[in-house]
Design brief:
Distance between the termini: 23 Å
Strand order of the largest sheet: 1-2-3-4-5-6-8-7
Shape: globular
CATH topology: Aminopeptidase
CATH superfamily: Gcn5-related N-acetyltransferase (GNAT)
Number of helices: 6
Radius of gyration: 16 Å
Order of helices and strands: EEHHHHEEEHEHEE
Number of strands: 8
CATH architecture: 3-Layer(aba) Sandwich
Oligomer: single chain
Largest sheet: 8 strands, mixed
CATH class: Alpha Beta
Helix content: 25-40%
Structural class: alpha+beta
């Protein structure tokens, strides 16, 4: 069973300690207007899948939500900081036979980039996958120009397994899609 939780994060900004209360909750239809705003911001969506990089509408998001809410192969959580939605974290393509799943972390509110929110979100979703669902392997696909994300996932314990060359086109240039993963340390 998946659980929800709250964590407190202390960050140092300009020699002042700031406290952030981070919570994770199930995605609700009321959250879709935030998706539209985030996904239509080119700076936010530049490294997301092609269906998002091309922009979205509330109608498209409602259709996606209707399908996703019936799908047992994915679990999406809203990341809240001080009760404000700032992004999503998901387990996707959950395969209960082979015990693997994809991971997606997305911070849509740019003022929370680099503040430790994504770290806590990834720790949360890794725990959901490894502890609560007993997944053996978590994987993620990252576009080559997203160097910040690649560094972040490596820091969090993901390793590069391989890549597809020239798989994605961004601004009329082709880039590789990098495959990264981590295995459940409890399955040794």
């Amino acid at each position: 069973m998946l659980d929800f939780r709250r964590v407190v994060v202390y960050i140092l900004v300009d020699n002042n300690v700031h406290i952030m209360n981070i919570a994770f909750r199930k995605l609700e239809i009321k959250d879709l207007s935030d998706h539209v705003r985030w996904f239509n911001d080119p700076e936010v969506s530049q490294y997301l899948g092609e269906q998002i990089r091309n922009g979205t509408t509330l109608e498209k998001q409602k259709k996606w939500f209707s399908s996703a809410s019936k799908d047992n192969a994915s679990k999406t959580f809203v990341i809240e900081v001080d009760k404000k939605p700032v992004g999503n974290v998901s387990l996707i393509e959950i395969n209960n036979i082979d015990k693997n799943a994809g991971v997606s972390v997305f911070i849509g509110e740019k003022e929370y980039w680099g503040k430790g929110v994504a770290i806590k979100a990834l720790e949360f979703i890794i725990d959901q996958g490894f502890t609560n669902i007993d997944i053996h392997k978590l994987w993620i696909h990252v576009f080559e120009p997203n160097k910040r994300a690649i560094k972040f996932y490596k820091k969090m314990g993901f390793v590069q397994e391989g890549y597809h060359t020239e798989m994605v086109r961004i601004d009329d240039k082709y880039y590789d899609e990098i495959f990264m993963s981590m295995t459940n340390p409890n399955h040794k």
